[in-house]
Amino acid sequence: EIRLSLVGSEMCIRDRENTVSGAFGSFDDAQDWFMNQLPNENGRFEVANSDKDLTSFSGDRTGYHIELHDNNRDGDTKVGDFYIDSNNGKVYKSDEHGKTFAEYDFSDFK
Protein backbone atom coordinates (compact mmCIF):
# COMPACT_ATOMS: atom_id res chain seq x y z
CA GLU A 1 0.00 0.00 0.00
CA ILE A 2 1.35 3.45 -0.91
CA ARG A 3 0.23 6.31 1.27
CA LEU A 4 -0.38 9.71 -0.27
CA SER A 5 1.87 11.25 2.37
CA LEU A 6 5.12 9.74 1.03
CA VAL A 7 7.83 12.33 0.53
CA GLY A 8 11.53 12.62 -0.22
CA SER A 9 13.51 9.38 0.01
CA GLU A 10 10.33 7.34 0.48
CA MET A 11 9.15 8.52 -2.95
CA CYS A 12 12.53 7.64 -4.49
CA ILE A 13 12.22 4.10 -3.14
CA ARG A 14 8.71 3.79 -4.54
CA ASP A 15 9.82 5.13 -7.93
CA ARG A 16 12.82 2.77 -8.04
CA GLU A 17 10.51 -0.19 -7.41
CA ASN A 18 8.35 0.91 -10.33
CA THR A 19 11.45 1.04 -12.53
CA VAL A 20 12.43 -2.52 -11.66
CA SER A 21 9.05 -3.80 -12.80
CA GLY A 22 9.19 -1.67 -15.97
CA ALA A 23 6.13 0.33 -14.96
CA PHE A 24 6.31 3.96 -15.99
CA GLY A 25 3.06 5.85 -15.68
CA SER A 26 3.95 8.35 -18.38
CA PHE A 27 6.62 9.68 -20.72
CA ASP A 28 7.59 12.19 -18.04
CA ASP A 29 8.21 9.39 -15.51
CA ALA A 30 10.34 7.47 -18.03
CA GLN A 31 12.25 10.62 -19.03
CA ASP A 32 12.96 11.56 -15.41
CA TRP A 33 14.30 8.07 -14.68
CA PHE A 34 16.40 8.11 -17.88
CA MET A 35 17.92 11.52 -17.13
CA ASN A 36 18.77 10.40 -13.59
CA GLN A 37 20.98 7.68 -15.09
CA LEU A 38 23.21 10.32 -16.73
CA PRO A 39 25.95 12.36 -15.04
CA ASN A 40 24.50 15.39 -13.31
CA GLU A 41 26.40 18.16 -15.05
CA ASN A 42 24.17 21.22 -14.74
CA GLY A 43 21.98 20.96 -17.80
CA ARG A 44 24.53 19.27 -20.04
CA PHE A 45 22.00 16.78 -21.43
CA GLU A 46 18.52 17.49 -22.71
CA VAL A 47 15.70 15.65 -24.43
CA ALA A 48 14.92 17.28 -27.75
CA ASN A 49 11.84 15.39 -28.93
CA SER A 50 8.34 16.63 -28.17
CA ASP A 51 6.36 13.43 -28.88
CA LYS A 52 5.35 11.87 -25.56
CA ASP A 53 3.25 9.00 -26.94
CA LEU A 54 4.27 5.35 -26.94
CA THR A 55 6.22 4.58 -30.11
CA SER A 56 6.73 1.32 -31.99
CA PHE A 57 10.36 0.28 -32.39
CA SER A 58 12.34 -2.84 -33.23
CA GLY A 59 9.43 -4.74 -34.73
CA ASP A 60 6.88 -5.58 -32.07
CA ARG A 61 8.16 -3.45 -29.17
CA THR A 62 6.61 -0.24 -27.91
CA GLY A 63 8.15 2.35 -25.65
CA TYR A 64 8.96 5.97 -24.97
CA HIS A 65 11.34 7.63 -27.41
CA ILE A 66 14.13 9.83 -25.99
CA GLU A 67 16.18 11.94 -28.42
CA LEU A 68 19.15 12.89 -26.27
CA HIS A 69 21.37 15.89 -26.94
CA ASP A 70 24.65 16.93 -25.33
CA ASN A 71 25.04 20.69 -24.94
CA ASN A 72 28.74 20.53 -24.07
CA ARG A 73 30.06 18.99 -27.26
CA ASP A 74 30.73 21.90 -29.59
CA GLY A 75 27.27 23.30 -28.98
CA ASP A 76 24.22 21.07 -29.35
CA THR A 77 25.14 17.56 -30.53
CA LYS A 78 22.74 14.66 -30.80
CA VAL A 79 23.89 11.73 -28.63
CA GLY A 80 21.35 9.30 -30.00
CA ASP A 81 17.84 7.93 -30.02
CA PHE A 82 16.85 5.80 -27.05
CA TYR A 83 13.69 3.82 -26.38
CA ILE A 84 12.43 2.75 -22.97
CA ASP A 85 10.42 -0.44 -23.43
CA SER A 86 6.95 -0.01 -21.93
CA ASN A 87 6.70 -3.71 -21.00
CA ASN A 88 9.97 -4.29 -19.16
CA GLY A 89 11.59 -0.86 -18.60
CA LYS A 90 14.76 -1.79 -20.51
CA VAL A 91 16.51 0.91 -22.51
CA TYR A 92 17.47 0.39 -26.15
CA LYS A 93 19.62 2.64 -28.34
CA SER A 94 19.04 2.72 -32.08
CA ASP A 95 21.72 2.98 -34.74
CA GLU A 96 21.95 6.27 -36.63
CA HIS A 97 19.42 5.04 -39.20
CA GLY A 98 16.86 3.71 -36.71
CA LYS A 99 17.13 0.21 -38.18
CA THR A 100 18.77 -1.78 -35.38
CA PHE A 101 18.33 -1.54 -31.62
CA ALA A 102 20.68 -2.73 -28.88
CA GLU A 103 20.02 -2.92 -25.17
CA TYR A 104 21.71 0.04 -23.50
CA ASP A 105 23.31 0.12 -20.04
CA PHE A 106 24.66 3.71 -19.72
CA SER A 107 28.22 2.34 -19.29
CA ASP A 108 29.68 4.97 -21.63
CA PHE A 109 28.60 7.65 -19.12
CA LYS A 110 30.18 6.00 -16.07
Main beta sheet: 6 strands, antiparallel
Fraction in beta strands = 25-35%
Distance between the first and last residues' Cα = 35 Å
Alpha plus pi helix count: 2
Q: Which parts are unreliable, with pLDDT below 50 for 5 consecutive residues or more?
A: 8-21
Could you estimate the helical fraction of the residues in percent?
10-25%
Quick overview of this protein structure:
The protein is of the alpha+beta class and 110 residues long.
Characterize the structure shown.
22% of the residues lie in helices and 30% in strands. The protein has 2 helices and 6 strands, in the order H-H-E-E-E-E-E-E. The protein has helices spanning 8-21, 27-36, and strands at 45-47, 54-57, 61-70, 77-85, 91-94, 101-103. Strand 2 and strand 3 form a beta hairpin. The longest helix is centred in the N-terminal third of the chain and has 14 residues, at 8-21.
Layout of strands and helices, then pairs:
Elements: H1 8-21, H2 27-36, E1 45-47, E2 54-57, E3 61-70, E4 77-85, E5 91-94, E6 101-103
Antiparallel strand pairs: 1-3, 2-3, 3-4, 4-5, 5-6
Descriptive labels:
110 residues; alpha+beta; six-stranded antiparallel β-sheet; 2 helices; 22% helix
